[in-house]
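Look over this entry.
=====
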Amino acid sequence: SGWRLPEIQELISLIRGCASRACGVTDPGCLDAICNDGADCAPCDHTEGPGPEGCYWDDALGDRCRDWYWSSSDYDGDFAWYLAFDVGFANRLSMDYSSYVRCVRSPV
């Protein structure tokens, strides 16, 4: 029990081997498009990360490197933030699209 969709900064904290881990997108805090500008939020080379299949996450997470994962962080009502681990990049997209989720649990 206690599983939930992570906020965008929780997904960003899982990035390994890519400078975009320093991206300033946070929930609550900075969810505007401007928060995703600059070198700290730039994507890295496609599937060149240290994880399985070149993902930009820790090897211990295992799993396949999928396209992108939803966060619970809303952007402008019909959009939400997602993280693409294949390039270590956070961005926003219409919630009409389907993709993967990587649930987290809060400490008790």
Notes: Residues 19 and 89 are 10 Å apart (CA to CA).
